[in-house]
Design brief:
The chain is α/β, with parallel strands linked by helices and about 140 residues long. It has one domain (about 5-130): TIM Barrel (Alpha-Beta Barrel), CATH 3.20.20. It is built from five helices and six strands; from the N terminus they run βαβαββαββαα. The chain has helices at about 15-30, 55-65, 85-100, 115-120, 125-130, and strands spanning about 5, 35, 70-75, 80, 105, 105-110. β1, α1 (about 15-30) and β2 form a beta-alpha-beta unit. α2 (about 55-65) packs parallel to α3 (about 85-100). It is globular and about 45 Å long.
Amino acid sequence: MTGGVHLPQAGPAASGDALTRTARLAEDLGFADVWVSDHLVVPAGVPYPPSAYVLEPLAVMTWVAAATSRVRIGTTVLVLPMRGPVVVAKSIATIDQLSGGRVILGAAAGWLEAEFDALGVPFDERGRRTDEPSR
């Protein structure tokens, strides 16, 4: 069995220093993976996530890849329909290449309707947008 650690990516604990320390400690302790989550916008009044301050996951993955050498770097989920598919594919492929093949991509259609509304992305189209092939 392997284990992983979710990185301090949200709230007052989120910082470059905290991300580096946590990822390196996880690596030193033998954990297999470190993980990030995805919330581009946290609308006021939603019960989760607990903080409106969430660092962007692809930037965090790049930061952590540069600070570590072995630990795999994954998204617990990346909400695909909130982003353009070609940009996501290029970003993930770049991080994977620069990290020596250490990326794990977890992807989903999303669930927080208020977040989709804030981004101007139709919530009822999230399934179709997730399945949409890039052209």
